[in-house]
Amino acid sequence: xxxxxxxxxxxxxxxxxxxxxxxxxxxxxxxxxxxxxxxxxxxxxxxxxxxxxxxxxxxxxxxxxxxxxxxxxxxxxxxxxxxxxxxxxxxxxxxxxxxxxxxxxxxxxxxxxxxxxxxxxxxxxxxxxxxxxxxxxxxxxxxxxxxxxxxxxxxxxxxxxxxxxxxxxxxxxxxxxxxxxxxxxxxxxxxxxxxxxxxxxxxxxxxxxxxxxxxxxxxxxxxxxxxxxxxxxxxxxxxxxxxxxxxxxxxxxxxxxxxxxxxxxxxxxxxxxxxxxxxxxxxxxxxxxxxxxxxxxxxxxxxxxxxxxxxxxxxxxxxxxxxxxxxxxxxxxxxxxxxxxxxxxxxxxxxxxxxxxxxxxxxxxxxxxxxxxxxxxxxxxxxxxxxxxxxxxxxxx
Length: 397
Prior knowledge:
Helices cover 55% and strands 15% of the residues. It is α+β, with helices and mostly antiparallel strands. The protein starts with a helix and ends with a strand.
């Protein structure tokens, strides 16, 4: 391949990457504009208060507030039930196991009894409560927060708006994740088609199939772990379980990719690591089913295995590089000798090709003379050399 063709291909690749980046940015901008142009808008609610010493104390949201002596925080609002009948009220408060009442009617309660989540997972979730359309006059909205950290509650804004506007707001918050998920599934599909195509022609397709599996599992993990999937699916506990299993197993195809790409099949430790990932997923499922141990409490085991896998692969790569750092030069030299001795090549010259082997023979003869002058006996079989010296034998590879 001549230099001009390489430059053209490089330029084409750079331009393609630029087009993809610009297209992605444009799509994100369009989605944001569509969300903003949705009829209606979200409104930040005001007028929240708490009861202290039988008195109403006004509360400003989006700040840290100390709990009452019982460790809870209860907020009230006298106006939004009448002003926003049928609207959705949304706030990020799942980590506080929030309950929302309209008068005596419970309109929202966060619960993770079927699938336990940690605070980091809960912090992404929005709590959406629909204000009753047939509310009585003077209905008070009450929000109960509990399980605050050291009795401190870091409150988020409480917004209200029509259902489609609230959903558009959630989509806008997750837009980067949505684009990432779409890219992962698209690349997984491309890798899968490429692997099938290569396999059809009996070429090495394993690496592409490994990449397809890794990207598919990563996309499933991103999707099932997203706030949108957790909030809008009819089976949030099932979605959470799928997310955990995708996370536990997505490293397996990458380990296979490393083995097949870097020719690490000789390192059995990588097979052991994959078996550990499988065993981890199996044992966690059994413990969750039989002993009711929540998956989130065993999450650290997967993190430890991932850390071990990464460190192991890095160490193997460094060791392999040190052992084979001269192999590239040797391959180039052998290939150049073949080029000089091939009639189909434009650099064909039998004099140059023969001079290489003649010079090699000359070096061997000179080496033999030098070794024997030192009292050794020397023989060469190409890659294996023998040095004989009384009264013992040495093998030098």
